[in-house]
Amino acid sequence: MKQRVFSGIQPSGVPTLGNYLGAIRNWVPLQDTHDAIYCVVDLHAITQPFDPKQLAAQTREMAAALIACGLDPERCVLFVQSHVHAHARLAWIFNCVARLGWLNRMTQFKDKAGKDREAASSGLYVYPNLMAADILAYHATLVPVGDDQKQHLELANDIAQKFNHDFGAEFFPAIEPLIQGVAARVMSLRDGTKKMSKSDASDQSRINLTDDADAVALKIRRARTDPEPLPESAAGLEGRAEARNLVGILAAVAGATPEAVLRDHGGKGFSEFKEVLAEALVAHLTPIQAEMKRLLGDPGAVDAALRLGAERARAVADPIMTEAERLVGF
Ligand code: ADP
Ligand code: NA
């Protein structure tokens, strides 16, 4: 039997280059080697400010982006989180299993809540419990994500273990993160210490998968760098977060290592290197954008694929959910 993988992405905006290189791109080959389940997580998207009039369209756009990047609704289960009720039901049980102290340690809450923590939604706070439910509702054991999600997966394992202990059954399996590639964490173009995120306030901090050639070139040209030329080897990237990020992005897009990128471009100034990088990005993104546009020309077909995906997801999650509720005593 194939190992089951689960991963999700929020429809909180157009996917960024970080989402693509850190996650989506790595999901594609797993469709053939694993039992792959991928979800547009709209329940997560409402943990932060959002526009209810836009949410359904953004969800469809995210699904179209995923298909354009190579997910095939025939070869994987692709669906929308709110269409499958097991996620929210299991998350409630997990809210009662996870300890407050565990959630207090989650660094992403601090990043996402920003300065006014008291004003953050309580959903944002328990988001990692919902993420645990997303995965465990399918008894998935492998989770391909970006490096930013590592801490949440450790929490999911703690929840699974405590559930098994408290309810006296080896019911939920251990899960493992699958963090792949040189661009497992793509950083903001404006601040090399922050991850690139679609929910960041500044559009200049990220490359969106839908950015046209001019936007890509402009954002890369304006990306923060230091005044030194590129080093000749990867060791020279130490302490140079912005340089490391841009080299990592080119390596990921070119399917090369940072060492190979520096063999070709070491010694160059950033203005020259940035032109090479922008060109490589545009060449990579153009066919994805064309496919996305084609898919969104027929929104009914995307919705139909998602409805079918939800049926297949329910067939897996509902029996697991029912058994979890029985163990709890419902
Ligand atoms: P975002 O933070 O952009 O809203 P999501 O929370 O929807 O992204 O995450 C979707 C997937 O993209 C996750 O697997 C996450 O690990 C990955 N991801 C998000 N940002 C980055 C990044 N800057 N670099 C690498 N992977 C990322
Ligand atoms: Na995230």
Written description of the protein model:
The protein has 330 residues and is mainly α. It has 2 domains: 4-184 and 298-328, HUPs (Rossmann fold), CATH 3.40.50; 211-293, Tyrosyl-Transfer RNA Synthetase. It has 13 helices and 5 strands. A 3-stranded parallel sheet has the order 1-2-3. It has a two-stranded parallel sheet with strand order 4-5. α1 links the parallel β1 and β2. α3 (52-68) packs across α12 (270-296). The longest helix has 30 residues, at 299-328. 44% of the residues are buried. Bound molecules: adenosine-5'-diphosphate and sodium ion. Keywords: Aminoacyl-tRNA synthetase, ATP-binding, Cytoplasm, Ligase, Nucleotide-binding, Protein biosynthesis.
Summarize the structure.
Its EC number is 6.1.1.2. GO terms for molecular function: ligase activity. It contains 13 helices and 5 strands.
